[in-house]
Design a protein that fits this description.
The protein is an alpha/beta fold and 250 residues long. The protein has helices at 5-10, 31-37, 42-63, 82-105, 121-134, 150-166, 177-181, 229-240; strands at residues 23-27, 67-74, 108-113, 140-148, 194-197, 216-219.
Length: 250
């Protein structure tokens, strides 16, 4: 395996470059609580959370991690106060427009997964523009789960497969994991090796239910806006102490 010298120069000395996760997923929990602790409105936590995500994305790129998936907005988040939902939709759109040039320059290939048709039309247009503009970038794959729900993803895959069986495109006996994965939102994207959840909650919250079957889980009480490079470094240290057997015994 050839290792980029730039990665070796930036990677902390106590991390083994050959044992890094290829794909990290993050549940970015605690933005609202962080803001409340600061005596600020909840939307300030979301703004700060965007800065944290940008820092962790750059960290992944610098350290040679191939993909980062962020849980930005779940199907259940529509149940939040309308003002907060509206703010988040506007924030996503503004951040995309503002950061696109830098993402192109830094070699970020961005993907959005979820039920994107339910998003505001203007946000859908920014998403399409960003995915097209970065589709040939190769430094890091950045996956943003927006209006995403793991159960909905699985149900939609089952419906799509059932329709193809009805049309005679294949039989029930043909259906295997490979065919199933081709009908998920994350088609063509590798499974996460490490799933990080901030704020101390011990659940996956309907996130990547199929894809994290063998991911290593790391939970920290740190709230997302405070999850900096040092905190990410600790998560990777913990990951490198795990023995991933995938149900087997050596």
């Amino acid at each position: 395996m050839t290792v980029n010298p730039a990665v070796l120069n930036s990677l902390p000395n106590d991390l083994d470059v050959l044992r890094l996760p290829k794909h990290v997923a993050v549940i970015m929990d605690g933005n609202g609580r962080w803001a409340q602790q600061q005596g600020q409105p909840r939307f300030m936590g979301h703004r700060r959370g965007v800065d944290t995500l940008k820092e962790i994305l750059r960290c992944c790129k610098d350290w040679g991690i191939e993909a980062l998936t962020a849980y930005a907005f779940s199907t259940e988040n529509w149940g939040r106060p309308l003002t907060e939902v509206d703010f988040l939709m506007t924030l996503f759109e503004r951040v995309l427009r503002r950061e696109l040039k830098e993402m192109i320059e830094e070699g970020v290939q961005i993907h959005f997964v979820g039920d994107l048709q339910a998003l505001p039309k203007s946000l859908q247009e920014e998403i399409d523009r960003a995915m097209v503009a970065t589709q040939h970038n190769t430094k890091i794959k950045f996956v943003v789960a927006t209006n995403y729900g793991g159960r909905r993803e699985i149900l939609e895959a089952c419906r799509a497969i059932a329709q193809k069986v009805q049309r005679g495109e294949f039989t029930p006996a043909d259906i295997d994991e490979g065919i199933f994965e081709q009908h998920l939102y994350t088609k063509g994207i590798s499974h996460p090796d490490l799933l990080i959840r901030t704020s101390g909650e011990m659940r996956v919250s309907n996130f990547l239910l199929w894809q994290v079957a063998y991911a290593e889980l790391y939970v920290t009480h740190t709230l997302w806006p405070d999850f900096d490079r040092e905190a990410f470094h600790k998560a990777l240290q913990d990951y490198q102490q795990r023995h991933r057997r995938f149900g087997k015994v050596k």
